[in-house]
Design goal:
The longest helix has about 35 residues. This protein starts with a helix and ends with a helix. Strand 9 and strand 10 form a beta hairpin. Among the domains are: about 160 residues, Four Helix Bundle (Hemerythrin (Met), subunit A) (Up-down Bundle); about 120 residues, no CATH class; about 100 residues. With about 650 residues, it is of the alpha+beta class. The radius of gyration is 27 Å and the shape is globular.
């Protein structure tokens, strides 16, 4: 009965979304406040019904209701409760329901926080948002219904994919979807602005908090997904340029460009056309990622479905929303004014430079991702584009962008002098050069590229706070005055600094682990040893263990280093009976910012095991850098000037204007 309520709730949500997508837009065109106000109430109602549907599906997983096909295919009565709950979105149908839940949630947030928006713009935004909800509700009801019944009901389920039975699944998909779907709001704002013709600095200020919120969650989601794949798959890598990894990275690149472009539009009313286009493309890339994951055109550990019917449906959604928005853009773009002018050497110029390289990088990753699909569709030949292509093309594009990070915030708006800004970075450049020289001096084989990369990372990390140091006047004023000035700086400045600092920290981790990683593989019998870096590993034997829904062989490995206390690592191999599927459970020991990583291979009849070991210097900095980036975005979002949007005129001012009229 509860499952049927969940199904009916989706139908009712669809009906409310149809009202939300039509009457408010008509009301905005006719100037009817009552019709426009319907958008708010229907947005809340649609969200509540979808939340009810999601709760019904969650209940079915919790009680192991195998009469639902979705639960039978993806759950098991012996599965731990945590994974019963996370299993709700560990499959195609459930993850799409989570997608729609978050989509309607953002619509409700716009209705709740959009009280400072002009009523016609708010109505159009909610209307466009509703049509996105409608499209995906139709998709789930017609092709991916999670409430399909089985008759008779099986006694036991097939269990969840073993690699998804991990705490990372509780965090990664919801975070990623909050980022993906969050950019639907900026898309709706762009389309609504083109419908109403309201494209100005105020629009940019309204859009920036939504873009920043989506960017924060997408950054966190990608980072969590990277770490989950790193420790769960047992392969030892943190990024593989997998096509589905790329599908989330492309919207992040374009969304980062959108954040910077919207800033120029807000401050100078420039880049209007480009900012609108970025808002469209960012969500379009999120939709493209959805198509790649769920159409079956890609084979990946991240993929959910391989049903061509679903792929065609999502492709139609892509054509309608991307094609329709770009057509509207083509109609409206010629009528947009250019906005404020600026010199190439200015903060606007630096942000344009930023946008050019981010957009080019996104286009490069998109090309490498889609090219094999295009070749296969045309010629039938299967080719692969792997890490070498992306490393060669993407890396060089990032170098000039990273070099500009400390300089951009020091430039003035409209027109700037390059030399004074560079003067304030002499100490940063000196320390970065010193870091590069030290790497060359104290490492083997004189890794020139590694020294350049570490120098660039130090440049970004220290340069991120150059503007703050300059504004506080640490080299001109007393410490008391300087710290007093620090307290008066806007939060957005601190947020920018922490975000850019995080990028430098991430780069430092990437360069260190890429250049100085060590790997060793050996087949060991109990009592035998192998070496990895400064550590000696002694295999002591295997211990069989039975889990709630799996059996496991745990290897005991003694780790010894001269001058340090020994410790034990326990990599293992699991076998899930219901799925008849093995998994590798890596053992990881963090030592400072570095990690010793062990992965257990095949076990022979003689009791020998294949042990693969990695020493990964400074790899934790990769994820620590993303934490700083998320922190920076959150600090910026907490700035009241960014949260309140455009301030309303005071009552006294309105009365004065009325009297003068």
């Amino acid at each position: 009965m509860i499952a049927e309520l969940g199904h009916y709730a989706l139908v009712l949500a669809l009906l409310l979304a149809l009202v939300q997508g039509s009457f408010p837009i008509f009301g905005a065109k006719a100037g009817d406040e009552k019709l426009m106000a319907l958008g708010q109430s229907t947005a809340f109602g649609s969200f509540l019904f979808i939340a009810l549907s999601f709760a019904a599906l969650t209940h079915a997983y919790v009680i192991s209701d195998f009469s639902l096909q979705n639960v039978w295919e993806n759950s098991h009565s012996a599965k731990p409760m945590l994974y019963k709950i996370t299993g709700v979105w560990g499959n195609h149908e459930g993850s799409m329901l989570l997608w729609i839940l978050i989509l309607s949630f953002f619509g409700a947030l716009v209705a709740w926080f959009g009280t400072t928006l002009p009523s016609d713009l708010r109505a159009n935004v909610l209307g466009v948002q509703a049509w996105i909800v409608i499209a995906f509700l139709l998709f789930i009801l017609l092709t991916s219904n999670p409430f399909n019944r089985l008759t008779p009901a099986p006694f036991e389920g097939n269990d969840l994919n073993p690699i998804l039975q991990d705490i990372g699944l509780a965090i990664h998909p919801p975070m990623l979807y909050l980022g993906y779907v969050g950019f639907s709001v900026t898309f709706s704002f762009a389309v609504a602005a083109m419908i109403s013709g309201r494209i100005d600095a105020a629009w940019a200020r309204w859009v920036r908090p939504w873009a920043l919120t989506a960017w924060i969650f997408l950054t966190a989601g990608i980072s969590m997904g990277s770490y989950w794949a790193y420790y769960e798959l047992g392969w030892g890598g943190w990024w593989f340029w997998d096509p589905v990894e790329n599908a989330s990275f492309i919207p992040w690149l374009v969304g980062t460009a959108l954040l910077h472009s919207a800033l120029v539009m807000e401050k100078r009313e420039a880049l209007k056309i480009w900012t609108i286009l970025l808002a469209i493309i960012t969500f379009s890339m999120a939709l493209l990622g959805t198509f790649l994951v769920r159409s079956g055109v890609l084979t990946s550990v991240h993929s959910f479905a391989n049903d061509p019917e679903r792929g065609v449906f999502i492709l139609m959604i892509l054509l309608v929303f991307i094609g329709g928005s770009l057509t509207l853009f083509a109609i409206r773009a010629p009528s947009l004014k250019a906005g404020g002018l600026f010199q190439p050497i200015s903060r606007e110029g630096a942000l344009v430079f930023n946008n050019v390289f981010l957009a080019t990088a996104a286009a490069t990753v998109l090309t490498g991702t889609l090219y094999p699909l295009v070749v296969e569709a045309i010629s039938g030949e299967k080719i692969s584009v792997g890490p070498p292509f992306f490393n060669i093309t993407f890396g060089p594009l990032m170098v000039p962008l990273l070099m500009l990070i400390p300089l951009g915030p020091l430039l003035s708006w409209k027109r700037a002098d390059l030399y004074p800004a560079m003067q304030r970075l002499y100490w940063v450049a000196g320390l970065a050069l010193l870091a590069a020289i030290l790497v060359l001096a104290f490492t083997e084989d004189q890794p020139v590229l590694a020294s350049i990369g570490i120098g660039l990372a130090v440049w970004c990390m220290l340069g991120a706070f150059a503007e703050i140091v300059s504004r506080a006047g640490f080299f001109k004023n007393s410490a008391t005055i300087a710290f007093a000035r620090l307290r008066g700086l806007p939060r957005t400045m601190w947020g920018t600094a922490f975000g850019h600092f995080g990028m430098g920290v991430l780069l430092l981790g990437v360069v260190a682990v890429t250049a100085f990683e060590k790997e060793s593989v050996a087949e060991l019998a109990p009592g035998e040893t192998m070496e990895i870096g400064e550590y000696q590993l002694r295999f002591d034997g295997l211990l069989p263990v039975t889990g709630p829904n799996f059996s496991e062989n745990i290897a005991t490995v003694q780790v010894i280093k001269e001058g340090s206390r020994p410790f034990v690592l326990k990599p293992s191999k699991r076998f899930y009976q219901a799925r008849q599927m093995p998994t590798t459970e890596a053992a990881i020991e963090s030592i400072g910012f570095s990690q010793l990583y062990l992965s257990l291979g095949d076990v022979s009849r003689e009791g020998k095991v294949v042990l693969r070991a990695w020493w990964k210097p400074a790899i934790i900095l990769i994820w620590l850098g993303t934490i700083f980036m998320v922190l920076g975005g959150s600090i910026s979002l907490s700035d009241r000037r960014l949260r309140v949007g455009v301030a309303k005129a005071s009552k006294a001012r309105l009365e004065a204007q009325t009297a003068n009229a």
